[in-house]
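User: Show me sequence and structure for the first protein, then do the same for the second.

Assistant: Starting with the first protein.
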Amino acid sequence: MKAPSYRPVVAMAGLTACSGCQLTFLNCETELPELARRFAISYFPLAVTAHAASGPIDISFIEGAVSTPDDLELLLKIRSMSRFLVAFGTCALWGGVAAMNNHESRKSMVEAVYGKTAGGMKTFNPQPFANFVKVDFAITGCPPEKSELLATLAAFLKGSFPVFPRYPVCTECRNRENRCLLIEDNEICLGPLIQAGCNARCPAVGIICEGCRGPVTEANVAAELELLLEKGFTREEIERRMRRFYPEWDYEQRS
């Protein structure tokens, strides 16, 4: 990647999501003036009204899962006019909370929320971006860490993408000398399976890791499943917890 010699054009958009990932950008309050000086924001509906997506765009950050034809249309449109596309947040990268019940009937779930008359709604199982388009980079998290967004933008100005941690949250827990909620307190903590980068924020205050940053590379799901079964948790309870942020873990193959 070559470092841009001009003020790069940035887009920020959301599909089926809560908008929390986009808010990460707005939460960079101290850095916003510098970001505005170094980047041209061409499309950001959450922050600027009356703007339609138009290219060319140097780097686009898109959050959310793809769950409707409109989602897919917007994703394809922005992809087509963007030099680089970043899957921004866990939903964009893995499907996230929106996809946690993809193994159940979509029709029955829609009817449970909207009633029998909603059978004709144009929706499908929420899916990550990589099922439809090329993804050039990803920032995981629900929501992503502000520091990782800033690191990505800074690296882009220099013609590269940053390297984020590839080890599990447990490593950060050990570095902070936290009490192990999984081994010592017998709780369903997903720290051994989940990508670090949050500085073990939740376990540090006694809250189990829910898995919001998605799976670490080569996560040993079978070992975690076996350990939790030995501790008396039901397989259904364990799988539901694991599916919360990464719905497509293949438990039959991994256990």
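Switching to the second protein now.
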Amino acid sequence: MKGKRYTTEEKVRMLREADGGRSVTEICQEKNISAVTCCRWKREFGMMDVNEAKRLKELERENTELKKMLADALLDNRVLRFVNEKKL
């Protein structure tokens, strides 16, 4: 059975709770996640603030969109080159 998917903001909030004085095991038991997951999140999001995490997600989304646009443009270019070779 798959567990709940946490948003980036929720992950950062959990990490801030751990920094605030609560133990990591206590937070992990409350949120029903493993300590390994918490350590992975800490490595990934480190000392990020919630606003920084939101900005990171936005930039990742934008980067994905730009990569798709570039792939489409390269494919169009390749198709046009192929059509031009056939005409000659």
